[in-house]
Amino acid sequence: MNSIEAKHLFGNNFLGIEELRFLVQKLEGEIELDTIDIPIRYREEELYLAARNGYILVLVLPDKKKSLFSIRSLRNCFGINPEVGTPCFYNQDWYLNESFIDDVVTPGWYLLQKNPQECTRAVMPDVILADNTGDFPSAMLCTYTFFAYSIAYGKNLWETDFVWCSDLDHNGDRIYVGKYHDVDGMNKDGFSIHRHLRLRPCYSAIFVR
């Protein structure tokens, strides 16, 4: 299946060359988009099934700079203040020294689930992985897809949901991202990047009488 056929199949769940032009322009990237021709690696039956089940087919573009599509680059571009521009990142800095924010995704086509599975809500990530044959997407792939989709279609993915990622921080705590809007109105809007803290000996208790 070629990209034209795939775009027709996936509709607004498709991020190909034309849809990604907006992201490249925003990042001021020097990428000759019209020369890019990356075959879709999935079989037709896989694509039909994925389209029926609400997956996004997204093209990760090759990048000569090896840093244009990193979380750090996206954060520098989109900023952390929704009053200045949207979409943006949630204002937090704990991850700025973590290695995963400089990771890049291998160029190519990816199928990324658009909506979280209801059966995975409030379930620990290790349990989810043990019960399924797939793996979590990287934080970079989620971040790239979020901002590309938001610019292309004017809608935010995972507006009020967090999604687990395959990345771990330097302590081995798992990364999760998303939840652009705080329904309680306590926090400003912004794409969030958090880590799920595991219990370690440094967590303890004191008592008062």
Description:
It is a single chain. The chain has about 210 residues and is an alpha+beta fold. The chain has one domain (about 5-195). It is about 30% helix and about 15% strand. It contains six helices and six strands, in the order H-E-H-H-E-H-E-H-H-E-E-E. It has helices at about 5-10, 15-25, 45-50, 70-80, 125-130, 140-155; strands at about 15, 55-60, 110-115, 160-170, 175-180, 190-195. The strands form two sheets. Strands 1-2-3 form a three-stranded mixed β-sheet. A three-stranded antiparallel β-sheet has the order 4-5-6, covered by helices on one side. Strand 4 (about 160-170) and strand 5 (about 175-180) form a beta hairpin. The longest helix has 15 residues, at about 140-155. It starts with a helix and ends in a 13-residue tail after the last strand. The model has no long low-confidence stretch (mean pLDDT about 90).
Report a brief summary of the structure.
This protein is of the alpha+beta class and 209 residues long. It has helices at 3-10, 17-27, 44-52, 71-78, 125-131, 139-153, and strands spanning 14-15, 55-60, 108-113, 162-168, 174-178, 192-196.
